[in-house]
Write a structure and sequence with these properties.
Helix content of chain B: 25-40%
Number of helices of chain A: 4
Number of strands of chain A: 5
Largest sheet of chain B: 5 strands, antiparallel
Oligomer: heterodimer
Order of helices and strands of chain B: EHEEEHEEEHEEH
Structural class of chain A: alpha+beta
Largest sheet of chain A: 5 strands, mixed
Strand content of chain A: 15-25%
Number of helices of chain B: 4
Radius of gyration of chain B: 16 Å
Distance between the termini of chain A: 36 Å
Chain lengths: ~110, ~150
């Protein structure tokens, strides 16, 4: 979660009472295969600053963490993204409650 | 147009018989079986673990089958893909297509495998003498799928 634990109770109350106007988007991420291992996470709740967030914003937000996130999600690295179980290009909008999965190119068959 | 993701093995003969049972329109059945090899990039492979993305996998396979039905003159199709722990010689995937004639049956079968290899969320992890490793996607797989995009 990117909601700061220093946020005032008043601000949190305001956000909670005006969900339609809150300038943020909260999604659920899923990390699969090799990315699950290098991120040491199966997924998380992630709050994005933008209320008109896209897949590109999700990648930017995660990349800004540095470390393995910056390495694996660096521009030019082959990362696939699915929004609500459908492959999605960077410009795809993400909305509150969406499931956004990040994974390496597939290798089945 | 059934799709199945399962840990258990499959019997291709039984699946083909079921798919074309009682359908006298069928004049051609094409099928493909992918199996586990014991060698990958010159390294001995002792086993394979197949991971997938539950929820998306079935949806992706059904979308690929629907695409095949739109592109080719076929009656029916079947995709079975195994997940979990596999060993060399094990069966991984089965694709079966029924049609009136061989041309559409062959083409649809190849299309299904080419698209499955680039669009269905499965990942292979190999156990080798040098340790475990995730299989890297091959550029040739993207090329094979792109060939169909050009003929859409």
């Amino acid at each position: 979660m990117l909601v700061s634990d220093r946020a005032s109770p008043l601000l949190l109350t305001m956000l909670a009472s005006r969900p339609a106007l809150a300038a943020s988007t909260t999604i659920r991420t899923v990390y699969l295969a090799r990315l699950r291992e290098v991120f040491a996470s199966r997924g998380e709740a992630l709050t994005l600053a933008a209320d008109a967030a896209t897949v590109a914003d999700v990648l930017d937000t995660l990349r800004a963490r540095g470390g393995a996130w910056a390495v694996e999600l660096a521009p030019g690295r082959a990362v696939r993204v699915a929004v609500n179980h459908t492959l999605a290009p960077p410009a795809t909008r993400v909305r509150n409650g969406d499931e956004v999965a990040l994974f390496p190119p597939v290798t089945g068959g | 147009m059934p799709v199945r993701v399962q840990t258990s093995d499959f019997d291709a003969g039984r699946e083909i018989a079921a798919l074309r049972a009682g359908d006298a329109r069928v004049g051609a059945v094409a099928s493909f079986i992918g199996t586990v090899r014991d060698l990958s990039d010159a390294t001995a492979v002792s086993g394979l673990t197949l991971e997938h993305y539950p929820g998306m996998t079935e949806k992706a396979l059904e979308a690929i089958l629907a695409d095949a039905r739109a592109r080719f003159d076929i009656f029916d199709g079947l995709v079975i893909h195994r997940v979990g722990e596999l060993k060399p010689t094990d069966q991984i995937v089965l694709v079966v297509v029924t049609s009136a004639h061989r041309g559409d049956a062959f083409d649809a079968c190849r299309f299904l495998m080419d698209y499955l290899k680039t669009k269905a969320p499965f990942w292979k992890r190999e156990s080798t003498t040098a340790g475990d490793r995730w299989v890297e996607a091959r550029a040739g797989d993207d090329d094979a799928a792109a060939r169909w995009d050009a003929t859409r």
